[in-house]
Amino acid sequence: MTKRVEGKIAVVVGAGQTDGETIGNGRAIAQLLAREGATVLCVDRVGDRARETAERIAAEPGVVSPASWIGADITVSADCARIVAEARARYGRLDILVNNVGIGGGGDAPAHRLEEQAFDRIMAVNLKGMWLTIKAALPVMREQKAGAIVNISSLAAAAGATQMAYEVSKAAVNRLTTSVAQSNARHGIRANAIMMGFMDTPMAVSGISRATGQSTAEVRAARDARVPLRGKMGTGWDTAYATLFLASDEANFITGEILRVDGGMGLGMV
Questions:
Q1: Would 269 be classed as within a structural domain?
Q2: Which of 45, 71, 127, 208 has its Cα between 20 and 30 A from that of 87?
Q3: What is the rounded CA–CA span in Å between residue 124 and residue 167?
Q4: Do 255 and 246 contact (CB within 8 A), yes or no?
Q5: 103 and 158 co-located in one domain
Q6: Where are the beta strands (DSSP E) in 81-129?
Q7: Domain span at residue 215?
Q8: Do 211 and 105 fall within a single domain?
Q9: Which residues contact 186 (CB under 8 A, 6 or more apart)?
Q10: Catalytic residue among 100, 166, 169, 203, which?
Q11: Are residues 58 and 38 in the same domain?
Q12: What is the pLDDT, as a whole number, of residue 268?
């Protein structure tokens, strides 16, 4: 059986992860794309994290295409250009771009308490960085007359009232996605986003644990209780499988879609 992205060249931005008990979205996405036949360039601001993901891919039985890695800061336009240039130099093309970027905290709050520095930092990473990677990739994809872009968004784009900068940044990611989809459809380029609900990832669970002083078990139980589907958060693999579908030719006629992967959490907002 042909693997679902066999022969594709994929760049996964945010392919590393923080320490924790579970797998993060970026690492799961990179590993799954590699299992399904893609050659993956793992990108992370912390190069060692990207390298670890690439090494994990290389150690997996059955993975044929070697993964590689690069450290880059997507808030710097020259770094984004370097990511795409490296992909093209190493592999000759760029078929899939996954933007798994998202930070919060550090002064994020409702509008009356949100710190200006936090707003600027979160928007620079979550929105501007994503735009810069897309801007760097589009000329290559337009020349190829093909390409798939998958942006990782959040249910916070449509709900919540405690982290204004994060919420606004993810709402903007959704609009960025539909704008890119509309302006590049005639060039054979697709752009879609995944609007995630509660996921059991190190950044989420371990991050909240450190910030609040609760144990990871307490954080996990509280988050699980808010998920309608089986009372259980999703995992990085749920994000990865949704990404795989949208990046594959199975989704060849899908563009501009904002796909909720949230265990039914968003149903109460409809």
A1: no
A2: 127
A3: 14
A4: no
A5: yes
A6: 96-99
A7: 204-233
A8: no
A9: none
A10: 166
A11: yes
A12: 77
